[in-house]
Fold these 4 entries.
Entry 1:
Amino acid sequence: MSEDLGGEDVVIDCCGSLFIAKKHPSGYYICPLCGRAVFFSERDLILHIGAHAKDRLKALHKAPRR
Ligand SMILES: [Zn+2]
């Protein structure tokens, strides 16, 4: 039914946090957080998601205070 979307959902476990990523029929994954980065292995995707998570933590710590 939704096969025209050209991708299937895969669950990515990144340090205990679960993310739903799109897996393209051609075999690559698309980052669920930025939707731009493309990866050819699940491990690379997990590393990338981990980087997003770190950025978020950094952003929280660096929240501007005045
Ligand atoms: Zn990303």
Entry 2:
Amino acid sequence: MVSTMRGAPTRRGRKQTITPATLMLVVFGFLALTFIVLMPAQAEARVLDGAGTASLENSPVEPVEPTAPSSGGQGDVSSSATSTGGGLGVPGLPVISSVVCLRQCVSSSRPTRGAIIAIRGKNLDRVTRVIFRSKSGRIATRLRTRSVGAVRVTVPKRTVRGYLSVVDSGGNRARSPREISIFPISAIPIQVFPVRGPISFGSSGSRFGAGRPGHIHQGQDVSASCGTTLVSIRKARVVYNQWDDGGGNYLVLRNIGTNTNFVYMHMLRRSPLKVGQVVGAGARIGRVGNTGRSYGCHLHFEYWIGPWQTGGKPIDPLPFLRSLLK
Ligand SMILES: [Zn+2]
């Protein structure tokens, strides 16, 4: 786009003396500009046609800067202008880069019928519906929310395994990079490990009961890279979501149907969850951080029988955490 800005003033300056030569220059300049503007949309269309799987996940967000066309490029310019409707400022075609399950999920890549999924990619702000596969054909679904980078939708009840596609208000269509498998609700695990990434339980100093200045360690430290996703272990209600000089950004979850509470400390940022909100097993609750009195990126995790800090008591969470990894 920078080249467009540079080109415009020059063209206007020369327009004042109109000779056949300058007219040619202006026409050619306009065609060149059209080509430059349309190139990103074409590049995306090619990615879509290829329907590559793994490569799409890692494809750069920004389109590759197009190079100026050579003198032989005029034929291409006119053909691309007619195929996309012509004119400058044509909105880009939609592209799906990934599909992530947000709620009622077996895992982030395994939705159930009725799950809420996020479809991420480019140029999704004009998408009006999502098409799923069913045994009797296709199901068009309206969106829950929409933004430039993602649309959210509920997986219809009759959905079966297959590609999904988005359709925008101009009738442009994009297909998911891979088939989406649909799982039964009974496949949703009751409890999952809280850290989505490589972890270490560290040495004796990370354990429950280890000595700390002025107190003993009431939890288990789980080392992981800062930014690693943290999830709710079970279906739980948010009890506290706040800051503490020691614990940093911390979250307390009361597990539904039990008298237990789980505590997550030193999170990178304040959790986006609201107090009182209920989250399912595996729901994203924040990211591993190093906030508060913390020396290195890790999750400080506590397991309480009864209310946290107000009558309950903490137990050693390590055997439980290990059991979640089996
Ligand atoms: Zn700790």
Entry 3:
Amino acid sequence: MIMGFESLNDVFQIKANRANGSAVLALYRCFKKFWLILDGNICMIPRDPPRRPQLGFLYLPPFRVQGISIAGEESVVQLPELDTCFDIGRCPRAALSSPYVALTHGHMDHSAGLAYYFSQRYFQGMGVGTVLCHPKLEQPIHNLMRAWIDIEAQKTPYNVKAMEPDEQIEIKKTLFLRAFETNHRVPSLGYTIVEKRSKLRPDLTGMPQEKLIALKKKGEPITQTHDIPLVCYTGDTAWGSHFDRPDVLEAQILITECTFLEEDHRKRANVGMHLHLDDIIKLLERSTAKAIVLTHLSRRTHLAQAKKQIFEAIKPEDRQRLFLLMDHRNNRERYAQQQEQLGEVRD
Ligand SMILES: [Zn+2]
Ligand SMILES: [Zn+2]
């Protein structure tokens, strides 16, 4: 039985009846550390503060997908090899290394780290960061950075590039980031990173080298460019015609949201203009991606429960290609296996 409670500087003292073992046990479960003092008083130090959320990490060769994504709190998904960070809800240190932030929409949980991203990149001598955004967000971003000049009494350099739907920009040699319209409560875009690979024109297959060179010298194009959609990130969105696009459905890695799972949350998904597990099932039937990464799960459902619900709802053959970005334990185990396999190859 707990007899009293008083605070002693940083240390809380709780007096408990020494004979009552279950009370002591209950207290032990509440607080990680305590000292039992001889006269029967239990002295305990309070818990340390919660740590910052850990970065989710998946190695989907040849790309790393890393970041944090929790509905309503924070979404930032980085592909280091592709120089791009999709959304920047807050700005973890790792995100700074990406010269581009492709912003899907302005909701705070996706955009609040933007000013900090620009500032830290500049401060650390990493070059001026560029944000790609919906045309309707261009001016508000200028306003945001303008406000920071007044707050900080200094000017942070930054670049904003408004992306019209279907516009694409080159982010790396032969790699283009293309925007497409999505369906959310505010102006929103999704993005696909496309590799432009040139291949010999099919009608010239088998032609001797000298003849090809001669054609080229005459100024005739001997190659054709093919678009290979590498990674697609939809951001927050309801179901819509963008899920018919080849560069979404054929992306090798498709990163999308799944905010609602429960049957009775269908209506909430519609109101919030988010995807529901039913949509993911539809999407799995259409997408040819070798990996589909779910983000933006709600904290309302415990991760283990969410995982069970998702994996029971999908076809067994899809279980190998569906990942949850924030499923730290599984993703860590998978990465350890990948390292082991690579070690075996090296040996
Ligand atoms: Zn969101
Ligand atoms: Zn949103």
Entry 4:
Amino acid sequence: MEITSTRYVAALAPQLLGLLVTSIIIYALARLPSYYQKIQLWRKYCSSHIKFSREAGQGKYLWLEDPWSKSRNYWLCKHVAIKHVFSRSAIQETDHRAGFDWFHFAGWEIPTTDNRYKKTVRTADSTVHRELAKSKLSSLLDSVRRVGFSEIDRYKTAVGKEGKHVSLHTLMYRLGYNVNCIGIFGPDLDHVKTRVILQNFTEHQHMMFHCFNWPLPLWLTSRVVPGARKTVKARVELFNQLLEWYNAGGVATASSEMQAVVKVFEDAGTSPDIGSKFMNMMMIAFLANTPETLGWLFTHLVQSPKLLEKVRAECDAVGDVEPTAPFLKLTPHLYSALFETCRLYVFTGTPATVVKPTRLPGMGDHLFLPGDILHSMGQSAAFDVDVYGEDAKFWKGHRFVGEGESLLKYDLTFGIGRSPCPGRNFAIAELCLIATRMVQTFDFADPMITERLRFDDPDFIVRKPMPEKTVDIIDLDGKVYRVIHPGNGSDQGPPGMTAANTPACDFACKLTPRE
Ligand code: HEM
């Protein structure tokens, strides 16, 4: 009897195999057009974020779907859909916590789901939010002022009375980094060493973060994919620096905000390596976006002479301004130029997970299903003509002045709704403060594009001139001008999770102290 059934199955095996193969072929053929379309969109995106984002901003594409990911990952392109997903009204439809927990675990090995540490990590998260609340910022901003102004004095001495060409984008990056690193972590964490490591991390991070979506284990991708390997290497180096700093008692000279976060881990009796992983994640949040934004702001401001004149008059009028001053009112053109820079150079994609079948405004009839992961493609939302009008593709520093001020409510730079950036008030105040001081202190002339400084190069060197790219901007007189541009370093490859765009070359100019 047994022999008969075995023979029967053996006789049927070729038919079963044939059926299986045919089903696979039919399945694959049925999906081929949509797969082909996804790859085409993806290829287009990867060849240039800017070009793709412009098309998407004009409404051609509703989303970018990742053809390789294990769950359905959508990068939403329309402003109205992104705003909805992150707003409080979508609370029944999308969940943010899952994405954050996964992101923190996969990116920094923070044990977000391990019951032994879960509560401590949550308390540390809310401590960061509490410590960075607007009402508590004055001591942190005082350190920013002290460190920032002494850095600017150092630049003044270095360029001398006659002035000197400097790699301005890099110098502004370093200014922003030093201010935050020394201001938040205190003087005992090596700000040059950590900056070099963090720049190596951010340079490659988009590849590691993208691997999170692949149907492959992280231990494999982080060893095999070159960008992911480099990011992990930098993460380990930064972790070692932080642990060394902690063990040497560096926290004693850190800001009270940082001490409060460390105390959460100490009070819970957690081993220092868990706290260091958390601080490692915070290094990116605290230190990566602000400096790059400052670099891009000056690249454009220096080349908008009429706007710069206006900004200079505003900055001179405020004189020795308090760090907690209302910059929107006191220096409206500078404030606007800063947000215009963020609009075009900061792209964010912290994911939300769909928990209930839902349709999204601006996304037609598509029904998003539980488990779908939604990212905001901030860059194409920034080019959305429905929001910003036909001139959305230009950097227009005075966009948010006067009547334009109402457009600030569409800003997505710092996230919105349920999980905005807890450091946003601090970031805006410090950026306005430092930029004001720079404009009060220096004249800027003779812009040029040069090879980018290496991360470990000294501050005041300029590398060899590079072929110039150009970009059209709108100056205060409303006219379009063609100006030079260093190119976008992060304008290719898959989308990052959260970062400011990096330049491909350096923007250099002559910096001369004003009389
Ligand atoms: C121009 C500068 C900055 C930009 C554009 C920026 C933007 C963002 C965005 C978009 C998020 C994610 C929000 C979400 O989708 O849930 C975020 C998270 C965060 N930001 Fe900022 N931020 C900046 C500066 C800062 C600064 C200066 C600090 C602290 C001093 C800070 C602290 C944080 C923290 C702690 C988080 C949560 C990070 C996490 O849990 O993964 N940010 N930021």
